[in-house]
Amino acid sequence: MRDGTLRRWVHFALTAVTFLYVVTGMGISDYRLIEGLSLGLLTKERSLWLHGSLLQVFAVLLFLHIYLKVRPMLQGKAGARSE
User: Fold this and answer.
1) Could you count the other beta carbons within 10 Å of the beta carbon of residue 38?
2) Is 61 exposed, middle or buried (0-12, 13-18, 19+ CB in 10 A)?
3) N or C: which end of the chain has fewer CB within 10 A?
4) pLDDT tens for residues 12-67?
5) Domain coverage including residue 51
């Protein structure tokens, strides 16, 4: 997989997980509104479970996002020192 394609997938996944994290957070605090908007699929209990589960996924995706952005800069500086 090319680096640009991987960066796009990580960016898309991070955006989706961030959106879900916000929605599930609202599903915990304002559960009546979110339960109605999701047609009963996202209850308070499901929101709480999903919100807790998304934290680890969010952290991994955030790390990958930052790493893929910083890696070319670090490789450029390391190459400049060795020359």
Assistant:
1) 14
2) buried
3) C
4) 999 999 999 999 999 999 989 999 999 989 999 999 999 999 999 999 999 999 99
5) 3-75
Q: What distance in Å separates the CA atoms of residue 83 and residue 12, rounded to the nearest whole number?
A: 37
Which amino acid belongs to residue 27?
A: G
H-helix or E-strand spanning residue 78: helix 44-82
Give pTM, 2 decimals. Answer: 0.77
Q: In terms of Cα–Cα distance, which of 34, 66, 71 is closest to 50?
A: 34
Within-domain flag for 80: no
> What type of residue is 2?
R
- Enter the tokens of residue 72: 């070319």
HSE, CB side, 13 Å, CA atoms: give it for residue 6: 10
Residue corresponding to tokens 């509104």: 33
Among the listed residues 28, 3, 25, 17, the one whose alpha carbon sits nearest the alpha carbon of residue 62? 17
Instruction: Answer whether residue 42 is part of any domain.
Output: yes
